[in-house]
Design goal:
494 residues, alpha+beta, Uridine Diphospho-n-acetylenolpyruvylglucosamine Reductase, domain 3, 2 domains, globular, Potassium/proton antiporter
Amino acid sequence: MDFINIPLFSAGALVFLSVLSGLVSARVGFSFLLVFLVGGMLAGEDGPGGLRFDDFVLSFWVANVSLAVILLDGGLRTAYPTFRTGLKPATGLATAGVVLSAGITGMAGMWLLDLQWPMALLLGAIVGSTDAAAVFSLLKSSGVSLNERVAATLEIESGMNDPMAVYLTLAMIAWVKASLGGEDLGLTGLLALMVQQFGWGAVVGLGGGFALSWLLPRLAARTELRAGPLALLLVSAGLAVFSASGWLGGSGFLAVYLFGLVVGNRSAALVRDALWAMDGYAWLSQAAMFLLLGLLVTPSQMLQTLWPALGVSVVLMVVARPVAVWLCLAPFRFRAREVWFVSWVGLRGAVPIVLAVFPVMAGVPGAALFFNVAFVVVLTSLLLQGTTIAYAARKLHVALPGKGEERLARAVYGDFVLDARMPVGEVCAFYGLPAPERGHEPLGRWLAQELGRPPVVGDMLVLGPAHLSVREMNGPDIRAVGLRFLQPLADSGD
């Protein structure tokens, strides 16, 4: 029985030690995901563990299943109301933003790694998207509360940009192989591939979501749906949707995210009890995926291109991602500090490493280079960006006060709490503020119109010597407004 016991003991001990290390390292700000990845490297052939592992097919299979479970969990937890503020900007980032990041990173690959243009664009496509596992996990564990616009934009973007990254990677692989064979790859074929990927992904994901959300209440009326079996039902259905979409030529990543989104909102009361079990499935998926991908890398080979790969990572973090975010968010009137934060939280995780396996399996010459560069990009992103989310949120003033943090709430919103139904003209007259036009309008409605975008808690507007801030929301409407003076009030006796 040693052929069962020894591998099982090794796997169990590796996961246990990685989780234990993650719990300790999280206290000093290191990501769980980074610990799993490094744990896999240490267990590999260049580390103390000495395990030789080079099964790209198994790694590819496990990683895809794990990403499907993680995206399903993210979709189940995304509420429709967040789409009010996050859908449009996130869609821009998940499409045009990925293309821009890939293009700029590709230029860095040409310069730093001496790649030809098709190969450089393939590298950009591989590392161009943010990672759902990293974003979902690190935003939850950062300990900061972000305003709805920023949080929704980041979460929806990370859930929706994988299909674009997969499409770009497949398209670039086809272009590279066609150029190596002296063929001309037509634009029509690339556009057809995009329509196929997104079309089937949307149809299968939405269709499966509506079908299961119709079934669940009827099933619950006839039998007791406990959290464990319900979570297993959701995971199995999600994996079926993921694989069915891929079998038809669509994007399984898009399909499973949309499936979770529909089921999580249309059957929210039933799904809520299963989210605890889903959290366990998602963590198990992250642990298995990152440990396996860590085992797959050979650090001694990665060191051969370490400095150029670090250069690519720096360009991606400080040039490509910020340029893409600023251009894509320009129409949506985000505050500058929000744009900088979204730019910084462009976390790379397992997805670039998984995408780097595509050219290896497709037989692209020199494909090992993509895998090594992607691994360096992921390590630097988790180490630098992943460990500084809370610091960046506080430094850029996008973190909101938590419950019970009254002193911080007063510092952010001010000492005065105003009813949003009061006429704005009366408020200005009482506090000596400049009288705006439409003074008869309720303060909340006037503030929302002046902001020029769907308001969220934390939005601020300068009016004369004061800050007016959105303090409480009731659905899409402002319920309470905070007032903070930017300078001390003048003495009434002067």
